[in-house]
Amino acid sequence: MDYASWIRDLALILRGGADYYDWCRRNIRTRSFQDCLARDWHGREQRRYPMHPAVLKALELSPEHRPYDWHLLTLEWPHVSETDSTRLAYTRDERAGHADRQTVTTVGKYLTRHFPTLPDHVVRNLVALYSAGDSCKLVHTMAEMLHHLFNGPSSCMTRDMEVRCADGVRRHPYQVYDPKYGWHMAVRMFNGETVGRALCMSDGNTKYFVRSYRRAENYSPADEQLEAWLVSQGYEKQSRWDDDDKLAYYEVDRGDILAPYIDGGTQAVSLYGDHLRIDRNGEYDCSQTGGTASGGGSETCEDCGDRFADGDGYWVGVNGELAHICSSCCDNEYTYVYGRRQDMYFVHSRYAIEIGGHYYDEDYLSDNDIVALENGDYADMDNCVMVGDDWYLFEDERVCRPEDSDDYWLTEDCWQCEESGCWYTDSTESVEVDGKTYHPDNAPEQETADEE
Protein backbone atom coordinates (compact mmCIF):
# COMPACT_ATOMS: atom_id res chain seq x y z
CA MET A 1 0.00 0.00 0.00
CA ASP A 2 1.26 3.47 -0.91
CA TYR A 3 0.56 5.29 2.35
CA ALA A 4 2.52 8.33 1.17
CA SER A 5 0.04 8.82 -1.71
CA TRP A 6 -2.94 8.26 0.58
CA ILE A 7 -1.62 10.89 2.99
CA ARG A 8 -1.11 13.36 0.12
CA ASP A 9 -4.72 12.79 -0.99
CA LEU A 10 -6.08 13.18 2.52
CA ALA A 11 -3.99 16.32 2.99
CA LEU A 12 -5.63 17.78 -0.13
CA ILE A 13 -9.06 17.09 1.35
CA LEU A 14 -8.16 18.63 4.68
CA ARG A 15 -6.61 21.66 2.99
CA GLY A 16 -9.83 22.27 1.02
CA GLY A 17 -10.23 24.41 -2.08
CA ALA A 18 -12.76 25.29 -4.75
CA ASP A 19 -12.86 21.88 -6.40
CA TYR A 20 -11.86 19.50 -3.64
CA TYR A 21 -15.44 18.19 -3.18
CA ASP A 22 -15.61 17.15 -6.84
CA TRP A 23 -12.16 15.60 -6.52
CA CYS A 24 -13.26 13.66 -3.43
CA ARG A 25 -16.35 12.29 -5.21
CA ARG A 26 -14.20 11.08 -8.09
CA ASN A 27 -11.38 9.55 -6.02
CA ILE A 28 -12.60 8.66 -2.52
CA ARG A 29 -14.96 5.74 -2.07
CA THR A 30 -16.00 5.92 1.54
CA ARG A 31 -19.24 6.12 3.46
CA SER A 32 -17.60 8.53 5.89
CA PHE A 33 -17.00 11.16 3.23
CA GLN A 34 -19.25 13.55 5.11
CA ASP A 35 -16.68 13.44 7.94
CA CYS A 36 -13.83 14.47 5.61
CA LEU A 37 -14.46 18.17 5.85
CA ALA A 38 -11.77 20.73 5.13
CA ARG A 39 -10.04 22.25 8.16
CA ASP A 40 -8.85 25.82 7.91
CA TRP A 41 -6.27 25.23 10.61
CA HIS A 42 -4.90 22.21 8.75
CA GLY A 43 -4.54 24.23 5.57
CA ARG A 44 -2.60 26.78 7.63
CA GLU A 45 -0.20 24.10 8.91
CA GLN A 46 0.34 22.66 5.44
CA ARG A 47 1.16 26.09 4.03
CA ARG A 48 3.60 26.74 6.86
CA TYR A 49 5.50 23.47 6.96
CA PRO A 50 6.20 20.41 4.83
CA MET A 51 5.75 17.07 6.56
CA HIS A 52 8.80 16.02 8.57
CA PRO A 53 11.33 14.22 6.29
CA ALA A 54 11.87 11.42 8.84
CA VAL A 55 8.15 10.59 8.72
CA LEU A 56 8.12 10.66 4.91
CA LYS A 57 11.13 8.34 4.89
CA ALA A 58 9.40 5.96 7.29
CA LEU A 59 6.35 5.91 5.01
CA GLU A 60 8.57 4.67 2.17
CA LEU A 61 9.17 1.51 4.21
CA SER A 62 5.45 0.58 4.07
CA PRO A 63 3.69 -1.80 3.77
CA GLU A 64 6.23 -3.88 5.69
CA HIS A 65 6.09 -1.40 8.54
CA ARG A 66 2.73 0.34 8.12
CA PRO A 67 1.75 3.34 10.25
CA TYR A 68 -0.53 2.54 13.16
CA ASP A 69 -3.15 5.10 12.03
CA TRP A 70 -2.35 7.01 8.85
CA HIS A 71 -5.49 9.21 9.24
CA LEU A 72 -4.31 10.42 12.66
CA LEU A 73 -0.76 10.91 11.39
CA THR A 74 -2.07 13.15 8.60
CA LEU A 75 -4.25 15.18 10.96
CA GLU A 76 -1.30 15.75 13.32
CA TRP A 77 0.82 16.99 10.37
CA PRO A 78 4.28 16.40 11.95
CA HIS A 79 6.99 18.84 10.89
CA VAL A 80 10.36 20.21 11.96
CA SER A 81 10.03 22.25 15.15
CA GLU A 82 10.55 26.00 14.75
CA THR A 83 12.19 26.29 18.17
CA ASP A 84 14.57 23.32 17.81
CA SER A 85 15.40 21.92 14.38
CA THR A 86 16.51 18.62 15.91
CA ARG A 87 12.97 17.95 17.26
CA LEU A 88 9.53 17.37 15.78
CA ALA A 89 6.29 19.35 16.29
CA TYR A 90 2.71 18.22 15.63
CA THR A 91 -0.90 19.28 16.28
CA ARG A 92 -2.37 17.04 18.95
CA ASP A 93 -6.11 17.49 18.20
CA GLU A 94 -8.79 19.80 16.74
CA ARG A 95 -8.78 22.10 19.75
CA ALA A 96 -5.00 22.54 19.52
CA GLY A 97 -5.35 23.17 15.79
CA HIS A 98 -7.84 26.00 16.24
CA ALA A 99 -5.65 27.45 19.01
CA ASP A 100 -2.55 27.20 16.77
CA ARG A 101 -0.75 25.22 19.48
CA GLN A 102 1.76 22.50 18.60
CA THR A 103 3.35 19.80 20.74
CA VAL A 104 7.13 19.35 20.47
CA THR A 105 8.72 15.93 20.92
CA THR A 106 11.71 13.92 19.77
CA VAL A 107 11.80 12.38 16.32
CA GLY A 108 12.42 8.93 17.76
CA LYS A 109 9.47 9.05 20.17
CA TYR A 110 7.08 10.14 17.42
CA LEU A 111 8.25 7.46 14.98
CA THR A 112 7.95 4.76 17.63
CA ARG A 113 4.36 5.80 18.40
CA HIS A 114 3.17 5.82 14.79
CA PHE A 115 5.34 2.99 13.42
CA PRO A 116 5.34 0.37 16.23
CA THR A 117 6.81 -2.40 14.02
CA LEU A 118 9.72 -0.30 12.78
CA PRO A 119 12.97 -1.92 14.09
CA ASP A 120 14.93 0.01 16.69
CA HIS A 121 18.02 0.30 14.49
CA VAL A 122 15.94 1.83 11.66
CA VAL A 123 14.42 4.38 14.05
CA ARG A 124 17.89 5.16 15.38
CA ASN A 125 19.25 5.75 11.86
CA LEU A 126 16.31 7.98 10.93
CA VAL A 127 16.79 10.01 14.11
CA ALA A 128 20.52 10.39 13.46
CA LEU A 129 19.93 11.41 9.85
CA TYR A 130 17.00 13.79 10.18
CA SER A 131 17.85 15.35 13.52
CA ALA A 132 20.87 16.87 11.78
CA GLY A 133 18.58 18.75 9.37
CA ASP A 134 20.33 21.15 7.00
CA SER A 135 23.29 21.61 9.35
CA CYS A 136 25.47 19.14 7.39
CA LYS A 137 27.46 20.15 4.33
CA LEU A 138 30.58 19.34 2.32
CA VAL A 139 33.55 21.70 1.90
CA HIS A 140 36.09 21.27 -0.88
CA THR A 141 38.86 23.82 -0.36
CA MET A 142 41.90 23.54 1.89
CA ALA A 143 41.11 26.87 3.54
CA GLU A 144 37.63 25.65 4.53
CA MET A 145 38.95 22.28 5.68
CA LEU A 146 41.56 23.91 7.91
CA HIS A 147 38.98 26.35 9.30
CA HIS A 148 36.66 23.54 10.41
CA LEU A 149 39.62 21.44 11.59
CA PHE A 150 40.86 24.17 13.94
CA ASN A 151 37.41 25.32 15.09
CA GLY A 152 35.68 21.95 15.36
CA PRO A 153 36.03 18.79 17.47
CA SER A 154 39.49 18.23 18.90
CA SER A 155 41.95 15.58 17.75
CA CYS A 156 45.70 15.13 17.53
CA MET A 157 45.72 17.18 14.31
CA THR A 158 43.75 20.20 15.56
CA ARG A 159 46.52 21.92 17.46
CA ASP A 160 48.28 24.92 15.99
CA MET A 161 51.18 23.08 14.38
CA GLU A 162 53.20 24.30 11.44
CA VAL A 163 56.15 22.37 10.02
CA ARG A 164 58.85 24.13 7.98
CA CYS A 165 59.15 22.30 4.66
CA ALA A 166 62.22 22.08 2.43
CA ASP A 167 60.90 24.89 0.20
CA GLY A 168 60.88 27.24 3.19
CA VAL A 169 57.08 27.31 3.56
CA ARG A 170 55.49 26.41 6.87
CA ARG A 171 52.53 24.03 6.48
CA HIS A 172 50.11 22.16 8.69
CA PRO A 173 50.38 18.35 8.25
CA TYR A 174 46.69 18.23 7.22
CA GLN A 175 47.61 20.00 3.98
CA VAL A 176 48.73 16.70 2.45
CA TYR A 177 44.98 15.98 2.00
CA ASP A 178 44.99 18.06 -1.17
CA PRO A 179 41.46 18.53 -2.64
CA LYS A 180 42.83 18.05 -6.17
CA TYR A 181 43.26 14.36 -5.30
CA GLY A 182 39.64 13.96 -4.18
CA TRP A 183 39.97 14.85 -0.48
CA HIS A 184 37.21 16.98 1.07
CA MET A 185 35.43 17.34 4.39
CA ALA A 186 31.91 16.86 5.72
CA VAL A 187 30.96 19.16 8.59
CA ARG A 188 27.96 19.53 10.88
CA MET A 189 27.10 22.99 12.13
CA PHE A 190 25.02 24.10 15.12
CA ASN A 191 24.39 27.74 15.97
CA GLY A 192 27.18 28.73 13.62
CA GLU A 193 29.76 26.44 15.24
CA THR A 194 31.44 23.34 13.85
CA VAL A 195 30.30 20.47 16.05
CA GLY A 196 31.16 17.53 13.78
CA ARG A 197 33.58 16.74 10.96
CA ALA A 198 34.77 13.85 8.82
CA LEU A 199 37.52 13.66 6.22
CA CYS A 200 36.13 12.20 2.97
CA MET A 201 37.47 10.80 -0.29
CA SER A 202 35.85 10.68 -3.71
CA ASP A 203 37.77 9.26 -6.67
CA GLY A 204 34.94 9.59 -9.18
CA ASN A 205 33.73 6.03 -8.66
CA THR A 206 33.46 5.61 -4.89
CA LYS A 207 32.76 7.99 -2.01
CA TYR A 208 33.76 7.02 1.50
CA PHE A 209 35.09 8.10 4.90
CA VAL A 210 36.95 6.35 7.72
CA ARG A 211 36.38 8.36 10.90
CA SER A 212 34.11 11.13 12.13
CA TYR A 213 34.57 13.43 15.13
CA ARG A 214 31.89 14.97 17.35
CA ARG A 215 32.59 17.83 19.75
CA ALA A 216 32.60 16.63 23.36
CA GLU A 217 34.16 17.79 26.61
CA ASN A 218 37.26 15.59 26.81
CA TYR A 219 37.24 13.19 23.88
CA SER A 220 35.82 13.45 20.35
CA PRO A 221 33.64 10.38 19.72
CA ALA A 222 32.09 9.45 16.38
CA ASP A 223 29.41 11.82 15.10
CA GLU A 224 26.46 9.50 14.38
CA GLN A 225 24.33 12.27 12.89
CA LEU A 226 27.02 13.32 10.44
CA GLU A 227 27.74 9.70 9.50
CA ALA A 228 24.05 9.02 8.85
CA TRP A 229 23.91 12.11 6.65
CA LEU A 230 26.99 10.97 4.71
CA VAL A 231 25.44 7.55 4.12
CA SER A 232 22.30 9.27 2.81
CA GLN A 233 24.55 11.15 0.37
CA GLY A 234 25.98 7.91 -0.98
CA TYR A 235 29.13 7.66 1.16
CA GLU A 236 30.35 4.40 2.70
CA LYS A 237 32.20 4.06 5.99
CA GLN A 238 35.38 1.97 5.75
CA SER A 239 37.94 0.79 8.26
CA ARG A 240 40.92 2.10 6.28
CA TRP A 241 41.79 4.35 3.37
CA ASP A 242 42.18 2.58 0.04
CA ASP A 243 45.63 1.77 -1.27
CA ASP A 244 46.68 4.20 -4.02
CA ASP A 245 44.64 7.15 -2.70
CA LYS A 246 46.90 10.14 -3.45
CA LEU A 247 48.33 12.70 -1.00
CA ALA A 248 50.40 15.82 -1.54
CA TYR A 249 54.17 15.41 -1.07
CA TYR A 250 56.19 17.96 0.87
CA GLU A 251 59.78 17.17 1.82
CA VAL A 252 60.82 18.38 5.25
CA ASP A 253 64.46 17.56 5.98
CA ARG A 254 66.86 14.66 5.59
CA GLY A 255 64.37 12.65 3.61
CA ASP A 256 61.50 13.15 6.07
CA ILE A 257 58.07 14.16 4.75
CA LEU A 258 55.17 16.29 5.99
CA ALA A 259 52.68 13.77 7.36
CA PRO A 260 49.52 13.83 9.50
CA TYR A 261 48.34 11.05 11.78
CA ILE A 262 46.31 8.93 9.35
CA ASP A 263 43.14 7.40 10.80
CA GLY A 264 42.18 3.81 10.04
CA GLY A 265 43.93 0.51 9.53
CA THR A 266 46.40 1.67 6.86
CA GLN A 267 48.78 4.32 8.15
CA ALA A 268 51.68 3.92 5.72
CA VAL A 269 52.41 5.80 2.49
CA SER A 270 54.88 5.53 -0.37
CA LEU A 271 56.42 8.16 -2.61
CA TYR A 272 55.37 8.09 -6.27
CA GLY A 273 57.11 10.82 -8.23
CA ASP A 274 55.64 14.15 -7.12
CA HIS A 275 53.02 12.77 -4.74
CA LEU A 276 52.39 10.20 -2.02
CA ARG A 277 49.99 7.26 -2.07
CA ILE A 278 48.31 5.29 0.70
CA ASP A 279 50.15 1.97 0.80
CA ARG A 280 49.83 -0.67 3.52
CA ASN A 281 53.41 -1.73 2.73
CA GLY A 282 54.64 1.84 2.36
CA GLU A 283 58.03 3.11 3.39
CA TYR A 284 56.67 6.00 5.52
CA ASP A 285 54.80 5.33 8.73
CA CYS A 286 52.12 7.98 9.40
CA SER A 287 51.07 6.88 12.87
CA GLN A 288 52.82 9.70 14.72
CA THR A 289 51.41 13.07 15.79
CA GLY A 290 54.55 15.18 15.33
CA GLY A 291 53.71 16.22 11.76
CA THR A 292 56.49 14.33 9.98
CA ALA A 293 57.39 10.79 8.96
CA SER A 294 60.72 9.16 8.19
CA GLY A 295 61.30 6.84 5.28
CA GLY A 296 62.78 3.40 5.61
CA GLY A 297 63.33 1.59 8.87
CA SER A 298 59.79 0.24 8.93
CA GLU A 299 58.51 -3.31 8.76
CA THR A 300 55.28 -5.15 8.04
CA CYS A 301 53.42 -6.95 10.82
CA GLU A 302 53.18 -10.62 9.85
CA ASP A 303 49.77 -10.88 11.55
CA CYS A 304 47.72 -7.85 10.44
CA GLY A 305 49.85 -6.49 7.59
CA ASP A 306 50.21 -2.98 9.06
CA ARG A 307 53.53 -1.16 9.06
CA PHE A 308 55.48 -0.36 12.22
CA ALA A 309 58.75 1.38 12.96
CA ASP A 310 61.88 -0.73 13.07
CA GLY A 311 62.57 -1.64 16.68
CA ASP A 312 58.94 -1.32 17.78
CA GLY A 313 57.91 -4.89 16.89
CA TYR A 314 57.98 -8.18 18.79
CA TRP A 315 59.30 -11.58 17.81
CA VAL A 316 56.97 -14.34 18.95
CA GLY A 317 57.45 -18.08 19.36
CA VAL A 318 59.82 -20.31 21.36
CA ASN A 319 62.91 -18.81 19.78
CA GLY A 320 61.20 -15.77 18.25
CA GLU A 321 60.97 -17.75 15.04
CA LEU A 322 57.18 -17.73 14.68
CA ALA A 323 56.56 -14.15 13.46
CA HIS A 324 57.55 -10.49 13.75
CA ILE A 325 54.46 -8.52 14.78
CA CYS A 326 53.39 -5.00 15.72
CA SER A 327 52.74 -3.90 19.30
CA SER A 328 48.98 -3.75 18.74
CA CYS A 329 48.78 -7.41 17.70
CA CYS A 330 51.13 -8.38 20.52
CA ASP A 331 49.02 -6.57 23.14
CA ASN A 332 45.71 -7.95 21.88
CA GLU A 333 46.54 -11.45 20.62
CA TYR A 334 49.67 -12.73 22.42
CA THR A 335 50.73 -13.55 25.99
CA TYR A 336 54.17 -13.60 27.64
CA VAL A 337 54.61 -17.10 29.07
CA TYR A 338 57.00 -19.48 30.81
CA GLY A 339 57.88 -22.13 28.27
CA ARG A 340 60.58 -24.49 27.12
CA ARG A 341 63.34 -24.96 29.71
CA GLN A 342 61.55 -22.31 31.80
CA ASP A 343 62.43 -19.59 29.24
CA MET A 344 59.97 -16.73 28.72
CA TYR A 345 58.61 -15.67 25.33
CA PHE A 346 55.39 -14.66 23.52
CA VAL A 347 52.88 -17.23 22.23
CA HIS A 348 49.38 -16.75 20.88
CA SER A 349 46.96 -16.34 23.78
CA ARG A 350 44.99 -19.45 22.77
CA TYR A 351 48.04 -21.54 23.74
CA ALA A 352 48.68 -19.80 27.08
CA ILE A 353 47.41 -21.29 30.35
CA GLU A 354 47.07 -19.22 33.52
CA ILE A 355 48.09 -20.99 36.72
CA GLY A 356 48.45 -19.18 40.02
CA GLY A 357 48.69 -15.75 38.38
CA HIS A 358 51.39 -16.83 35.90
CA TYR A 359 51.06 -17.91 32.27
CA TYR A 360 52.61 -21.00 30.70
CA ASP A 361 53.06 -22.44 27.21
CA GLU A 362 50.72 -25.42 27.06
CA ASP A 363 53.32 -27.39 25.06
CA TYR A 364 55.98 -27.13 27.79
CA LEU A 365 54.11 -27.44 31.07
CA SER A 366 56.35 -30.23 32.37
CA ASP A 367 59.43 -28.03 31.85
CA ASN A 368 57.91 -25.72 34.45
CA ASP A 369 56.75 -28.45 36.88
CA ILE A 370 53.11 -27.96 35.92
CA VAL A 371 50.88 -31.06 36.03
CA ALA A 372 47.38 -31.82 34.81
CA LEU A 373 45.01 -32.66 37.66
CA GLU A 374 42.51 -35.48 37.62
CA ASN A 375 39.67 -32.95 36.98
CA GLY A 376 41.40 -31.39 33.95
CA ASP A 377 42.77 -28.29 35.72
CA TYR A 378 46.49 -27.49 36.00
CA ALA A 379 48.61 -26.77 39.06
CA ASP A 380 52.19 -26.45 40.27
CA MET A 381 53.61 -29.88 41.07
CA ASP A 382 54.79 -28.61 44.49
CA ASN A 383 51.14 -28.20 45.47
CA CYS A 384 50.05 -31.63 44.28
CA VAL A 385 50.27 -35.31 45.13
CA MET A 386 49.93 -38.34 42.86
CA VAL A 387 47.43 -41.04 43.81
CA GLY A 388 47.62 -43.98 41.49
CA ASP A 389 48.08 -42.50 38.03
CA ASP A 390 46.36 -39.16 38.75
CA TRP A 391 47.41 -35.84 40.29
CA TYR A 392 45.41 -34.14 43.04
CA LEU A 393 45.89 -30.93 45.06
CA PHE A 394 47.08 -31.50 48.62
CA GLU A 395 43.99 -29.73 49.93
CA ASP A 396 41.62 -31.85 47.86
CA GLU A 397 39.10 -33.37 50.30
CA ARG A 398 39.12 -36.57 48.30
CA VAL A 399 42.77 -37.23 49.27
CA CYS A 400 44.17 -38.41 52.65
CA ARG A 401 47.41 -39.65 54.19
CA PRO A 402 46.54 -42.85 56.18
CA GLU A 403 48.29 -43.41 59.51
CA ASP A 404 49.28 -46.91 58.47
CA SER A 405 50.80 -45.96 55.09
CA ASP A 406 53.55 -43.76 53.71
CA ASP A 407 51.52 -42.99 50.57
CA TYR A 408 48.52 -40.82 49.78
CA TRP A 409 45.18 -42.54 49.19
CA LEU A 410 41.70 -41.60 48.09
CA THR A 411 39.35 -41.28 51.03
CA GLU A 412 36.88 -43.55 49.26
CA ASP A 413 39.40 -46.38 49.66
CA CYS A 414 40.03 -45.74 53.39
CA TRP A 415 38.11 -45.36 56.64
CA GLN A 416 38.22 -42.58 59.24
CA CYS A 417 38.21 -42.90 63.00
CA GLU A 418 35.22 -41.09 64.45
CA GLU A 419 37.14 -40.10 67.59
CA SER A 420 40.59 -39.05 66.30
CA GLY A 421 39.69 -38.07 62.73
CA CYS A 422 42.67 -40.07 61.45
CA TRP A 423 42.47 -42.13 58.28
CA TYR A 424 43.43 -45.79 57.93
CA THR A 425 43.60 -48.35 55.16
CA ASP A 426 41.63 -51.59 55.34
CA SER A 427 44.79 -53.32 56.62
CA THR A 428 43.99 -51.83 60.02
CA GLU A 429 41.00 -53.30 61.81
CA SER A 430 38.20 -51.02 62.93
CA VAL A 431 35.56 -51.20 65.65
CA GLU A 432 31.94 -50.20 65.07
CA VAL A 433 30.03 -48.73 68.00
CA ASP A 434 26.49 -47.46 67.63
CA GLY A 435 26.93 -47.36 63.84
CA LYS A 436 30.17 -45.35 63.99
CA THR A 437 33.67 -46.49 63.05
CA TYR A 438 36.59 -46.22 65.51
CA HIS A 439 40.20 -47.27 65.78
CA PRO A 440 40.39 -49.94 68.51
CA ASP A 441 42.48 -47.66 70.71
CA ASN A 442 39.85 -44.93 70.52
CA ALA A 443 36.64 -46.95 70.75
CA PRO A 444 34.35 -45.98 73.67
CA GLU A 445 33.78 -48.51 76.41
CA GLN A 446 30.53 -50.43 76.21
CA GLU A 447 28.42 -51.51 79.16
CA THR A 448 27.34 -55.17 79.19
CA ALA A 449 24.70 -56.88 81.36
CA ASP A 450 25.99 -59.30 84.09
CA GLU A 451 25.29 -62.93 83.34
CA GLU A 452 23.25 -64.79 85.96
Average pLDDT number? 87
Ends: how far apart? 110 Å
Gyration radius (Cα, Å) is: 38 Å
Please report the total strand number as a whole number. 34
Domain unit count: 4
Shape call: flat
Word description of this protein:
The longest helix is centred in the N-terminal third of the chain and has 13 residues, at 3-15. This protein is an alpha+beta fold and 452 residues long. It has a 5-stranded mixed β-sheet, with helices on both faces. A 4-stranded antiparallel β-sheet has the order 11-14-13-15, with no helix packed on it. The protein contains 11 helices and 34 strands. It has 4 domains: 3-130, no CATH class; 134-296, no CATH class; 315-368, no CATH class; 370-400, no CATH class. The radius of gyration is 38 Å and the shape is flat. Strand 5 (163-164) and strand 6 (170-171) form a beta hairpin.
Topology (SSEs and partners):
Layout: H1 3-15, H2 20-27, H3 40-48, H4 53-59, H5 70-76, E1 79-80, E2 88-90, H6 94-98, E3 103-105, H7 107-114, H8 120-130, E4 136-139, H9 142-151, E5 163-164, E6 170-171, E7 183-190, E8 193-202, E9 207-214, H10 224-232, E10 236-237, E11 246-248, E12 257-258, E13 268-272, E14 275-278, E15 284-285, E16 292-293, E17 298-300, E18 307-309, E19 314-316, E20 323-325, H11 327-333, E21 334-338, E22 344-348, E23 352-355, E24 358-361, E25 370-372, E26 378-380, E27 384-387, E28 390-393, E29 399-400, E30 409-410, E31 415-416, E32 423-424, E33 431-433, E34 436-438
Parallel strand pairs: 9-10
Antiparallel strand pairs: 1-2, 2-3, 4-7, 5-6, 7-8, 8-9, 11-14, 12-16, 13-14, 13-15, 17-18, 19-20, 21-22, 23-24, 25-26, 27-28, 29-30, 31-32, 33-34
Helix pairs in contact: 1-5, 4-8, 7-8, 8-10
